[in-house]
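TASK: fixed-backbone design
INPUT:
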């Protein structure tokens, strides 16, 4: 994975430097990734969770943002640079929506970062651990891409990604443990939703054919 973050500046202050770099007509996903790319892979994952952390609706964003996070995780696991399809990279986001995303993350980070400390480092150090955490983030990012009209199906995986990425960057094992718990809750929630949805379909089919 990448180097752990030991910067004196806070995450919220670093994110606040991004909006002035966005042009008036917004940016494509490629341009947006280029702007935040210097901060590193996990930092990029944190920012890409923005549309799903708060009730800010950006139609069609779950697939390109989720796939971008997934590709980043594959790159971390394989230690190899991966590219997204051109069609995904050309997805354009308005300046207004980008500012909503970034301002939302700044608000959330301002609440979290005061509690961040290097601790319980056994779950956030070592190549195998880095790859394992990246795999969980990648799994959660795939759940983000599912267009399900069900509450919390973006919210839960996004917060799992946020805590896992942030904990990995800051060597905070407690944040990573929260990410693990949210990943388990997310998996159970999606499983329950799938089972319930299937039961509804079977019931409707039985009613029609009965």
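OUTPUT:
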């Amino acid at each position: 994975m990448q180097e752990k973050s030991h910067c004196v500046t806070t995450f919220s202050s670093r994110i606040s430097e991004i909006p002035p770099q966005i042009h008036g007509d917004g940016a494509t996903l490629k341009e947006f990734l280029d702007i935040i790319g210097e901060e590193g892979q996990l930092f990029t994952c944190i920012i890409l969770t923005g549309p799903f952390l708060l009730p800010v609706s950006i139609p069609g964003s779950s697939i390109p943002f989720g796939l971008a996070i997934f590709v980043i995780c594959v790159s971390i696991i394989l230690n190899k640079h991966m590219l997204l399809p051109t069609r995904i990279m050309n997805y354009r986001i308005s300046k207004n929506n980008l500012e909503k995303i970034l301002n939302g993350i700044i608000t959330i980070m301002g609440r979290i970062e005061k509690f961040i400390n290097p601790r319980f480092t056994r779950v956030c150090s070592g190549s195998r651990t880095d790859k394992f955490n990246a795999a969980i983030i990648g799994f959660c990012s795939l759940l983000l891409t599912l267009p399900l009209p069900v509450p919390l199906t973006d919210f839960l995986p996004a917060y799992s990604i946020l805590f896992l990425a942030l904990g990995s960057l800051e060597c905070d094992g407690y944040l990573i443990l929260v990410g693990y718990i949210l990943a388990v809750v997310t998996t159970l929630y999606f499983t329950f939703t799938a089972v319930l949805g299937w039961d509804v379909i079977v019931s409707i089919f039985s009613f029609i054919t009965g």
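COMMENT: Residues 173-209 form the longest helix (37 residues).
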